[in-house]
Amino acid sequence: MLSKRGGSVAHKKLTFVAVHDAPDQVESFSRITFSEVVLWAPFHFSWAAFRLFFWLVIINGICITLSYHRNLSHRSFDLPKWLEYLFAYGGVLAFQCGGYENVSDLLRQPFYRFLQRSFGLHQIAFGLLLYFCGGMPFLAWGLGVATVVRSHTTFLVNSVCHIWGTRAWNTPDFSKNNWWVAIITFGEGWHNNHHAFEFSARHGLEWWQLDVTWYLIRFLKAIGLATNVKLPTEAQKKRMARN
């Protein structure tokens, strides 16, 4: 950068400083760490560790789709605070936590401020717990492989579901419904449905469109725990239909 001082030209050095919050630092570190842990997994296989991996992928995956996406992001339904926080914490243990600028409304609540500030500590504690319970097999499969699989299934929604699939609704984007992505993401693969009705707690709008997250929401509603459940009306469907 140049500036003039009394007819002379002075050179000023520019320094750029990148500021990262806790989730950013944990994510950057985890990109390397998880890759290394996954490489160890074949050498530390056990059926107990595989069962742990299987159930963690399901439980934490449901927490991401039900809590992070449909409840907290789109306010598709309401939960009692204790249950909302429980599902949200399951999302934290899936190593997913965005920047605070995306959720400024949530940060008005002390619980979410606490999670934001202490995000990395929960991952460390979870990793230590897995190691103490089952050694390297539990750490490699329950933390490394499970986290990588969950991350990639999440990424598939925003990649595959904008390239391959079918479209039932007139949305100003390339979103598509993809049945096999819907299976492995508990209903998130009905992406064109979601883009058409972002407020909807149900993504699989047809009876044959598998949506495990919606089935759980419907169960919570039936027992009185999920309220204000939002769904598209027939008039809204007609307005958005392609035919």
Notes on the structure:
- The N terminus is likely disordered.
- This protein has a two-stranded antiparallel ribbon.
- The protein is mostly helical and about 240 residues long.
- Helix 1 packs across helix 5.
- It has one domain.
- About 30% of the residues are buried.
- Strand 1 and strand 2 form a beta hairpin.
- The protein is globular, with a radius of gyration of 22 Å.
- The protein is built from 9 helices and 2 strands; from the N terminus they run ββααααααααα.
- It is found in: Membrane.
- Its main location: membrane.
- It is a multi-pass membrane protein.
- It comes from Brassica oleracea var. oleracea.
- Belongs to the fatty acid desaturase type 1 family.
How would a textbook summarize the main sheet?
2 strands, antiparallel
SSE order? EEHHHHHHHHH
Number of domains: 1
Low-confidence segments = 1-20
- The level of helicity is 55-70%
Count of individual helical segments: 9
Topology summary:
Blueprint: E1 2-5, E2 8-11, H1 22-40, H2 47-73, H3 81-92, H4 110-117, H5 119-159, H6 179-184, H7 191-196, H8 212-222, H9 234-240
Antiparallel strand pairs: 1-2
